[in-house]
Amino acid sequence: MFNTRWKVFIFLALCYRISHGEELDKKKLQKEAYDMFMHGYNSYMNYAFPADELMPLSCKGRIRGVTPSRGDVDDVLGNFSVTLLDSLDTLVVMNELDEFEKAIDLVIKHVRFDSDHVVSVFETNIRVLGGLISAHVLAELVKEKYPNRLTTYDNQLLKMATEVGNRLLPAFNTTSGLPFSRINLKHGMQDHLKRQKDTCTACGGTMILEFAALTSLTGDPIYEKKARKAMDFLWQQRHRSSDLMGTVLNVHSGDWTRRESGIGAGIDSYYEYTLKAYILLGDESYLDRFNKHYEAIKRYINKGPIFVDVHMHRPTVATRGFMDSLLAFWPGLQVLKGDVKEAIEMHEMLFQVIQKHKFLPEAFTHDFQVHWAEHPIRPEFVESTYFLYRATKDPHYLHVAKQIMDSINKYVKVPCGFAALKDIRTMVKEDQMESFVLSETFKYLYMIFTDPEDLMFDPDHYVLTTEAHFLPLSIGHKEKIENKINPRRMILRADEPQQKNYVCANPIDFTKLPTEREEAQLIRERTKIMLGELRNGASAGGAAPGNMICESPADRIRAWAFSSSNQEHVKQLVMMGIELITLSDGRLHLSHKSVNAASPLYARWGMEFMEEMQHYVEQLDKSGGTPEHTQQFVQILNRPYYGKPYLRGSAAQFGRDIAATKALVGRAAKTIPFRACDKILNADQVVGKIAVVERSDCVFQDKARFVQQAGAIGMVVIDHESNSQYVGDRPTFSMAVDKDGKDDIGIPSIFLFRAEGDHLLRSLKMHSETVISISSHHLSIENTIGRLLRYGKMFKFPEYPQCSLRDGDIILHNLDYPEVILNLRFNGINQDSDPRLHQEIVERHVTELQKYLEFKDADYAFQFYEFFRTAAYGALDLNVENSKLLTVISALSTLKTKPIPPSVFARLPGEITKVRCIPRGEEMPCVRLST
Ligand SMILES: *[C@@H]1O[C@H](CO)[C@@H](O)[C@H](O)[C@H]1NC(C)=O
Ligand SMILES: *[C@@H]1O[C@H](CO)[C@@H](O)[C@H](O)[C@H]1NC(C)=O
């Protein structure tokens, strides 16, 4: 995809950054957020109260049964002044205590819950019940702090909350325990309501926080019991192999009516409440469930910064080509989960959409076109911005929040409040202001600009519900809190890989967060670039991201593996837009046209294949001639270098030739000992990386053998002479072959003179991750970044391609080099063990692998397992013959892998024996790596 457009985009991405030059005045912005809230609140109170909602264009209240009906949307309105109930706790956040007292009086006097209206159980729970409980909790707090305030307050709000809870309870009377989606406030489950069959996952799965709080505050177990039963039932209904949820299901049978699975509308807050139920209640079963779902979402739905809805039962198949705006809450939840880096990435994606359209449209395509153009001033993106700012203290998020606030002021503020947008492209407004604008959007904006110490209460001692209402953590497991056994806080410690570490989530210590600002900036830049690449592909009519990742064809055919008699190979060439003509003298002629390719991805592959083939043919022509000193380049790819300057050096005359594979990219690591004339002591830091060593003390090939043994994928040798430097056009020196040395080196090596080498050493010293490429033509800057991108997540470099199994799994393979890593587990069986035990342990591996590896046909499978057996017996120090490279590669090129469940490792116990197979000539020998 490195076409002209791509280049232009890169240029922009590097030069265009939001200027963070100006220091923002948080106090001023806090005041602005406060003014905005008060404008909305006062407009509602002046023009609409006691109606449920404000109509900001006509400056009056929306009254159900009087104002023309909008259909289901009106199920939010229960003639219970929902906007006021939803806004009460925001008054406390903004320290408007006089108004808070006044508002509570009004609520007690005027609000009733017995109107003859059918309302949404879900909305009534999160806006009304949640609003009342939160206001009650904060009222108690205010009373305690200021004894002359709220003197007549005597749990009235809690009593009202209990009434609402009781009115909702009959909805839970279904076979499954999932609540019906709608109920009549006055008459309960009327017959026609009992005929409702379907409900959404989020609808049934967003009750537990409010209901558990109600149980805790009233002492009546019924509420938590009912909500918990609904959660348990939903968990039961997940797809058992994908762990994903669908969107809509039958309240009685639990059968899925809509099996689309995403993280947005219809599902969103079920996931949110699964994690937050753990945070509030300390019950680990919720955390386990969340972690299962979270893994599944990362595996199937999250494709880089993009989220793709899939079928829950066929999770590799995408169901729709757009994302809806509700999923913008996800980065906030990721912060709570501790996945800050991923949160930064997704937030940046959303911010890109917002910069393009000024607001987040209700839905947008994967290439960021507007799909549904409305924008009701939703809070989700601001909510995520709040959590990211709390977790990172990165001023970037203040700027983001300010930008949102500026747009709201500029485009949606009207004399009587704030009006939703009907179409963000034209900024045409709608006569609507949802209660969440006051209860969430402005609350989060205000809290972003307010230091937690300046709030009346510590927000980290509360769980914020999906409607941004505060539930105190003291609700969960009271006895434990008192014994200080399980101190949970709202924000968990960030970036901890092990779920067990969450059991006692520690108080936040922001100074220790591993996500540094610079890295965060880098993540955002990378996200922008990646999105540019995606957009490019998509606007060329390309494949949806769902098809681009981990979908067949598994991999591009490699030049050296290509055989014109293999029909599969020829077919892929055609897909890539390559025409193949056999000339009369038997030679093949290949020509490539991108427009003939089946998709942009194939077109890119075609280009790469042609380049690779050209190098390959050149190498073949060259071999046999006298070795000349080939110039090569080392480039440091990470920030701030981005490939500049490039360091000239010379290729070694031994080991693998890089020209054929274009470039070797990997992290660099210095070896201990630096001269690498002995076993490498820091093999754990060198494995999978490009080893950086110093010349002298032993021959070059010995160094290469030691670093190869340590698992390095390449080697840079730096001259030990202190003032040597590369001069002239061609290298004057290259690392020669040791006369009687064996040809046993499979990794490529490059020599740098001291002046060039010092550049690299400086970067290694200054940056914890130095990523370099070694190639025979230095890469232009766009190519450099492209290469970083193809390595997927920067700084989490898979040394192996994304679609292979993960480290620690049994097999990892990389067709780019090509190389295979096997992680075998022999459980004490070694060279000296009984031969039958050898056979048994190797076959046990094969048996397990067969369940998770899939080949195109039995021949390929057979070839692969023969190769596997050879490698395994070799690792047990038995004498084996090397496998044939071509056979291994063609088998691997049809390999598809499924994740291997941990249970397999119970059947294959023992320490990992790492085996690495890399090509040498036409063979694929394997060596056991020292660890
Ligand atoms: C709405 O609530 C008010 C105050 O509780 C009540 O007087 C009125 O009858 C209710 N309207 C309907 C349609 O139920
Ligand atoms: C639950 O529903 C059944 C069947 O509709 C009904 O007989 C029963 O009385 C209901 N129970 C409650 C507590 O509403």
Automatic annotation (TrEMBL):
<dbReference type="InterPro" id="IPR037322">
    <property type="entry name" value="EDEM3_PA"/>
</dbReference>
<dbReference type="Pfam" id="PF02225">
    <property type="entry name" value="PA"/>
</dbReference>
<dbReference type="InterPro" id="IPR001382">
    <property type="entry name" value="Glyco_hydro_47"/>
</dbReference>
<feature type="signal peptide">
    <location>
        <begin position="1"/>
        <end position="21"/>
    </location>
</feature>
<dbReference type="InterPro" id="IPR036026">
    <property type="entry name" value="Seven-hairpin_glycosidases"/>
</dbReference>
<dbReference type="GO" id="GO:0005975">
    <property type="term" value="P:carbohydrate metabolic process"/>
</dbReference>
<keyword id="KW-0106">Calcium</keyword>
<feature type="active site">
    <location>
        <position position="268"/>
    </location>
</feature>
<keyword id="KW-0479">Metal-binding</keyword>
<dbReference type="GO" id="GO:0030968">
    <property type="term" value="P:endoplasmic reticulum unfolded protein response"/>
</dbReference>
<dbReference type="GO" id="GO:1904380">
    <property type="term" value="P:endoplasmic reticulum mannose trimming"/>
</dbReference>
<dbReference type="GO" id="GO:0005509">
    <property type="term" value="F:calcium ion binding"/>
</dbReference>
<keyword id="KW-0732">Signal</keyword>
<feature type="active site" description="Proton donor">
    <location>
        <position position="123"/>
    </location>
</feature>
<keyword id="KW-0325">Glycoprotein</keyword>
<keyword id="KW-0326">Glycosidase</keyword>
<comment type="similarity">
    <text>Belongs to the glycosyl hydrolase 47 family.</text>
</comment>
<feature type="binding site">
    <location>
        <position position="466"/>
    </location>
    <ligand>
        <name>Ca(2+)</name>
    </ligand>
</feature>
<dbReference type="InterPro" id="IPR003137">
    <property type="entry name" value="PA_domain"/>
</dbReference>
<feature type="active site" description="Proton donor">
    <location>
        <position position="362"/>
    </location>
</feature>
<dbReference type="InterPro" id="IPR012341">
    <property type="entry name" value="6hp_glycosidase-like_sf"/>
</dbReference>
<dbReference type="GO" id="GO:0016020">
    <property type="term" value="C:membrane"/>
</dbReference>
<dbReference type="GO" id="GO:0044322">
    <property type="term" value="C:endoplasmic reticulum quality control compartment"/>
</dbReference>
<dbReference type="GO" id="GO:0005783">
    <property type="term" value="C:endoplasmic reticulum"/>
</dbReference>
<keyword id="KW-0256">Endoplasmic reticulum</keyword>
<dbReference type="GO" id="GO:0097466">
    <property type="term" value="P:ubiquitin-dependent glycoprotein ERAD pathway"/>
</dbReference>
<protein>
    <recommendedName>
        <fullName>alpha-1,2-Mannosidase</fullName>
        <ecNumber>3.2.1.-</ecNumber>
    </recommendedName>
</protein>
<keyword id="KW-0378">Hydrolase</keyword>
<dbReference type="Pfam" id="PF01532">
    <property type="entry name" value="Glyco_hydro_47"/>
</dbReference>
<feature type="domain" description="PA">
    <location>
        <begin position="675"/>
        <end position="760"/>
    </location>
</feature>
<dbReference type="InterPro" id="IPR046450">
    <property type="entry name" value="PA_dom_sf"/>
</dbReference>
<dbReference type="GO" id="GO:0004571">
    <property type="term" value="F:mannosyl-oligosaccharide 1,2-alpha-mannosidase activity"/>
</dbReference>
<feature type="active site">
    <location>
        <position position="380"/>
    </location>
</feature>
<dbReference type="InterPro" id="IPR044674">
    <property type="entry name" value="EDEM1/2/3"/>
</dbReference>
